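Minutes, project huddle
Topic: does the predicted pose make sense with protoporphyrin IX containing FE bound?
PN asked that the exact inputs be recorded in the minutes so nobody has to dig through chat later. Recorded below.
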Amino acid sequence: MRKSVLLFAAAILLTTASGAFAAGGAVHPVQRDWSHTGPFGTFDRAAVQRGFQVYREVCAGCHSVRLLAFRNLQEIGFSEDQVKAIAKGWDIGIPTTDEDGESINEDGEPITRAPIPSDRIPSPYANEKQARAANNGALPPDLSLMIKARIDGANYVYSLLAHGYEDSASEDTLKEAFHIENTNRKHAYEDAMKQYDDDLDKYQDKLEAYQQAVAGGRKAKEPKKPEEPEKPVVVESVEDMGLSDDMNFNAFFGGWGIAMAAPLSEEAVEYSDGTAPTLEQHAYDVVSFMTWAAEPRMEDRKRIGIKVLIFLLILTVLLYFVKRKVWSDVH
Amino acid sequence: MSLQINNRFLRWFEHRLPIISLLDHSVGTSYPSPKNLSYWWNFGSLAGIVLVVQIVTGIVLAMHYTAHVDYAFDSVEHIMRDVNYGWLMRYMHANGASMFFIVVYIHIFRGLYFGSYKSPREVLWWLGIIILLIMMATAFMGYVLPWGQMSFWGATVITNLFSAVPVFGESIVNWLWGGFSVDNPTLNRFYSLHYLLPFVLVGVVILHIWALHEHKSNNPLGIDIKGPQDTIPFHPYYTAKDLFGLGVFLIFFSVILFFMPNSLGEVDNYIPANPLVTPAHIVPEWYFLPFYAILRSITFDLWFIDAKLLGVIAMFASILILFVLPWLDTSRVRSARFRPVYKQVFWLLFIDVIILGIVGAKAPSEPVFSALRSFQYVDLGQIGTAYYFIHFIVLMPLIGWFEKPKPLPKSISEPVLEGAGE
Ligand code: HEM
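Predicted holo structure (tokens), as shared on screen:
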């Protein structure tokens, strides 16, 4: 038994050792305190509302939140009238038809009406083609489930927006990114060299065969000498990463180059509640909004969960004593 | 210990359909069980309860779910957002599948430890393996239904395995798909089968319990029931014990369900399926990982069999080999408590399966240790796979022959004699 416990410990160690290694091509996200984490976590209504404002004024130009309807905004504290006004004032209309059943007007433009609260929030682009055409071929993904669709979603998107771009990344973050990239390049180079050595051996054999053939007057194809892999550039700046022009460096994005230019900056949005409009605040708020959008029923879930757990704990203790009582004549 | 029915109506009914005595003989006072069952014997009834939970939540989900590639993803989100307690049904169902596997895997390892597969319980054991296979098929097809990225790509990878079959491979795969790729016809048939199979499962579970009742439960000592002094009626003893176990299980389930409902899933499945974008790592749900590792560890051809086919064979063989385990195990002693060597080897197998699970989650070419880059997960997987089969094919027969078992107690009711067990 002791032996097996030891072995089990070894297995655990093995995994953790490898976990530490699995850096991949991005820096581990910055961890922030959120009001929505933990068993009692709830949404910070004010932050979610501000985040919606950030979404509306900045992100909505490119990103949809197609699973949200305007009426859902009442759940985060907007009044019915506010929601009506938000819907009515939305930039993009809802496709509709006129009295004659036409869906396009004389100019060939689609006929639209102003959204009402029961409508889903309209997407900025009519289709994927249009979205790509407007973004250098890149597709801005829908944000409704973004936080659940990435590992450690809230921290990841927060880091991406507030601490990942060249101008906003800390010295340490950049250093770490360069270190990871240099390690990856070193390993790739080592692998390529190994392959090169093998290829070179094979080439020598083929060359000998070729030379013999030529000497013997037979026809043969001259083998091609393998190319030696180039030594990788050591990355000491973002420039050394060698990203293409339409890509922006971001330390938290896999592969370092993201097609989205830094969407947020200091004072990108003016808050009416007097909150300081820093870059971090904007990112925190918009992530709070996205977290709510990804799972609007989270608060119900936790609230009910606490009740269920209390009930089950009491029930299980009672069941334990019932079991003891029933079994008392057996033991 | 025959049943007394006092209510006149029930007596009238029982005379026409003896269902009350049937229940009584199954889980009541007339079913004698060994008196020494440990908590490891709770997992069978738990599995049955989880199956019911899956069926009930599944039927509710089916009322709101749309099996069409254009609507499936959104209909699941509609369940999550707009249907009253839809999020609860969906999270119960998705995590319930994980619970099902946790419970059943413990149940199986219990059987391996205490030799529950041995005579006269071979058919009972077979039915258990059939249950496992049907569960796997059901869970695999269920995972395709929300039509996220992992649904689509998981289905693509796994159905493609059948293309390894010589000659007919491609035809089989197209037949499974109902077309030339995983698409709407695939989703529809998976939905149909996903609805059907759990009910088939119920049927096999009934056979499983029937076979169980023929020879009664095995027990931690692994010796036969010698007489009434060794047994107690199932009710109230094991009903009380099972209920307490159920409480503990429900607490565990609730913690995951209410506070970390996405921790066992893949984040990629919150991205709608896109046949044009392949995810960086395609991984199955956690409960398939050891088998996935075995599948991917075969990277070499053998004789005329190519690596892909061999991987598929190895993967299926890793489960099918359990069918012949009762004959591979040559020991006359059931319980590992009295088998000093087998007990060690049992834990090695357990660790091996855990390691295979870890391997299944990793990219094959990833190094296991950063200091030794040439040793990759695929290598670890090959060692783990080899050991898995060695355990069953080599160690089980040999240990049965060479091991000197500890003396067995005379009977369940006097186990303390002669230093039995721990
Ligand atoms: C053996 C029992 C069952 C198992 C192991 C099982 C497993 C699963 C799994 C793993 C999923 C994917 C969950 C997700 O990630 O969203 C799923 C989805 C689904 N299942 Fe089942 N299931 C079972 C029984 C049933 C039954 C009996 C029904 C219907 C009567 C059903 C209906 C559905 C539906 C409609 C979905 C799609 C909704 C969703 O993805 O949440 N299931 N099932």
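Observations noted during the meeting:
- The mean pLDDT of chain A is 92.
- The CA atoms of residues 25 and 181 of chain A lie 7 Å apart.
No decisions taken; revisit at the next huddle.
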